[in-house]
Design a protein that fits this description.
Layout: H1 3-15, H2 24-40, H3 42-59, H4 68-75, H5 78-84, H6 147-178, E1 203-210, E2 213-218, E3 226-227, E4 240-241, E5 253-258, E6 263-268, E7 275-276, H7 295-301, E8 305-306, E9 312-317, E10 326-331, E11 337-339, E12 347-353, E13 359-366, E14 369-376, E15 382-386, E16 398-404, E17 412-419, E18 422-430, E19 440-447, E20 449-453, H8 456-459, E21 462-469, E22 472-480, E23 488-489, E24 496-501, E25 507-515, E26 518-525, E27 530-539, E28 545-546, E29 552-556, E30 560-565, E31 571-578, E32 581-586, E33 593-598, E34 604-609, E35 614-619, E36 628-632
Antiparallel strand pairs: 1-2, 1-36, 2-3, 4-5, 5-6, 6-7, 8-9, 9-10, 10-11, 12-13, 13-14, 14-15, 16-17, 17-18, 18-19, 20-21, 21-22, 22-23, 24-25, 25-26, 26-27, 28-29, 29-30, 30-31, 32-33, 33-34, 34-35
Helix pairs in contact: 1-2, 1-3, 2-3, 3-6
């Protein structure tokens, strides 16, 4: 269908009021064709969004009921009986003791045209044809009609015209406020169309990636999932949500990379203002698909990072095609992009913001040497954190994890060095006033795993690592960011796998003696080093998940999902909903709401109330991607 055909039917499509007499198959086919057109047409999608907005505004206007006398006059008039299809009105006796009808009595009176939904009821432009369909030609007006009724009809028509005029003016103002300047570059893909359904309502939503598109669903299950991104883009896996602002449960902006056209996009959480960042990620003429699997492509795809307040977005790009990535910072307020100048040659990767959102640490690799730098966005200064992370000179060693301490008054940068499965050292460098001017080693050895948490060690930040014994995973050890501190041994005689911090760093969960993806689940209290057995037969996929308040942990045994009440004696609460879980995600707004994705005969996404042990199905399709939460103010 073309734009003119769709515009004629937009009003009918929005109201779901196709002509009476249409077959169900025809109506479904029209709906499908219009929906398909709206997915790819920015113009018609915008028009539909305007229609929805006008309907909302009109629905908010006060409803005025006619007086009983006026209502009786209308429904006893000859014009009413003519329109309602009652031809024998002259032979009927309508008295005050009769009930006045509330709607048209018949729509299928023999010999009369059927009432149909008029296409183009909300037309934004005149049609090229001025002909009226034969079935809709009005009959000649009968003589002797009420003069007062004619005046009333004129008044109603004038009121409708005034209402539509006011609605159009309001819609035009809203539209002009949301317009973004076009990006001026021949190599830039035009901004994607807004979400077809208009802005999503305020509230908490979970967002997920499915078939290259981002989808959003309200946490209360009040409506179905809606696509946030158009079909013309393919979203990369490493999309990110901005951090929550003070007083909010989740962020209100998203950022993603379009794999087809190699551009970064920013998007409001309500599905509007999908904007292309005016900085190509790759050189023009290079096929993006040829680079995503390279080290340069991986560095680009893993680089998106929001500042604390969501005002800046960091990313890396290689617009020259030299396989050398540079660091860029987008200001969401102005839409401008700043290139961070480097004092050395090399490719940038792993940008990470400080807790106050003023500084950003990142790695620069050149000829096998990895340097860590710190850029201050306020004074534009660059600080060299370390010239070479591989000071031990081990083959294949490189930078693994890079992060900041949580203390904004005495900031520090910490990192791990080694290779996958062989972490050899942990480091810290204080960068605040009076801080240590050189990197300090926290620990060294041969660790299977090393995980950092800003909230660990009573909120000062700390590392968790798994030791190795005879080439196999062994015990858990934790250490804070103070050089010279004695590590805390958390387990003894174990074979620890898949260890992870709880949100506030009070607990660690892990699987012991895992075999074929199944092991024994333990929880360790980091402050007391108390190792608690939870359950046997626990799967490592999906990964057990902590509630935001650290009070509950959910895990899967394959066909059964179980809630662990961490407080007290580790009480277990099997959920009534059964099935093969593929993902867990706790609500950010309620400690007793959990989203579970199942992938078997009960395939779909479910919202679980852990207090009532009840489940509400939110989506009927499988979901294997991570879930992120957003909040629409």
């Amino acid at each position: 269908m073309n734009c003119e055909q769709v515009e004629e039917l937009l009003s009918v499509y929005l109201d779901d009021s196709f002509a009476v007499g249409e077959t169900a198959e025809t109506a479904l086919e029209l709906q499908h064709d219009i929906a398909a057109h709206l997915q790819d047409c920015a113009r018609c999608s915008t028009t539909l969004a305007d229609f929805r907005r006008f309907d909302t505004l009109l629905a908010q206007m006060p409803h005025i009921s006619p007086s009983p006398a006026l209502r009786e006059k209308i429904f006893t008039s000859p014009e009413y009986f003519e329109l309602s299809g009652i031809d024998n009105y002259k032979h009927r006796s309508i008295g005050r003791d009769h009930t006045i009808p509330n709607k048209t009595l018949r729509r299928d009176t023999a010999g009369r045209p059927k009432l149909v939904a008029l296409p183009g009821g909300r037309r934004v432009s005149p049609t090229s044809s001025t002909e009226t369909p034969t079935s809709l030609q009005p009959k000649a007006r009968r003589h002797g009609g009420s003069w007062g009724l004619r005046i009333m009809q004129t008044a109603i028509a004038a009121t409708l015209l005034l209402t539509l005029g006011v609605g159009s003016l309001i819609g035009w103002k809203l539209w002009t406020q949301n317009v973004h300047p076009a990006v001026s570059s021949s190599t830039i893909t035009p901004p994607a169309a807004p979400a077809p359904g208009g802005p999503l309502s305020a509230g908490i939503y979970y967002v997920f990636l499915r078939d290259g598109s981002l989808w959003s669903t309200p946490a209360d299950g009040s409506s179905k999932a809606e696509r946030l991104t158009p079909k013309s883009v393919t979203v990369a896996d490493s999309w990110v949500v901005s951090p929550p602002l003070p007083g909010r449960s989740a962020g209100d902006k998203l950022a993603y990379i379009d794999l087809q056209h190699a551009f970064v996009h920013t998007l409001r959480s309500d599905g509007q203002s999908d904007t292309v960042v005016p900085q190509p990620l790759l050189k023009a003429g290079i096929a993006p698909s040829s680079l995503w699997d390279t080290s340069t492509g991986e560095a680009i795809l893993d680089s998106l990072a929001w500042s604390k307040d969501g005002g800046m977005l960091a990313f890396v790009a290689d617009p020259t095609g030299a396989n050398t990535t540079n660091l860029y910072i987008l200001s969401t307020d102005t839409g401008s992009v700043q290139l961070v100048p480097l004092p050395i040659k090399g490719s940038v990767s792993q940008p990470v913001w400080s807790p106050d959102g003023k500084r950003i640490a990142f790695a620069v690799s050149h000829n096998g040497v990895v340097t860590i730098l710190d850029y201050n966005t306020q004074n534009h200064g660059l600080l060299n954190i370390t010239n070479n992370v591989n000071v031990q000179g081990r083959a294949n060693d490189t930078l693994l994890n890079l992060d900041w301490s949580p203390d904004v008054n005495a900031p520090a940068i910490t990192w791990s060095v080694g290779s996958i499965g062989h972490v050899h050292s942990l480091w810290v460098r204080h960068v605040g006033n009076g801080g240590i001017a050189s990197p300090q080693e926290l620990s060294q050895g041969d660790y299977v795993q090393a995980i950092y948490s800003r909230t660990a060690r009573n909120g000062t930040g700390g590392w968790l690592f798994v030791t190795s014994y005879l080439g196999r995973a062994a015990n858990l050890v934790s250490i804070d960011l103070i050089p010279g501190t004695i590590p805390t041994i958390l387990t003894r005689g174990k074979q620890v796998n898949f260890a992870q911090w709880s949100p506030d760093g009070t607990y660690v969960d892990y699987l012991d003696s895992i075999s074929s993806g199944v092991g024994t689940l333990h929880i360790v209290n980091v402050n007391t080093a108390t190792d608690m057995l939870v359950a046997t037969g626990v799967t490592n996929e999906p990964t057990p998940a902590w509630s935001a308040d650290d009070q509950q942990l959910v895990y899967s045994t394959g066909q059964q999902s179980v809630i662990v009440d961490v407080q007290g004696s580790l009480t277990l609460h099997p959920l009534k909903i059964h099935g093969l879980a593929s993902f867990f995600s706790w609500s950010v707004s309620s400690p007793h709401q959990l989203v579970i994705a199942l992938n078997d005969e009960q395939t779909g996404v479910y919202l679980v109330d852990t207090q009532r042990n009840s489940a509400l199905q939110l989506d009927q399709q499988a979901l294997d991607s991570p879930i992120f939460w957003t909040e629409i103010p």
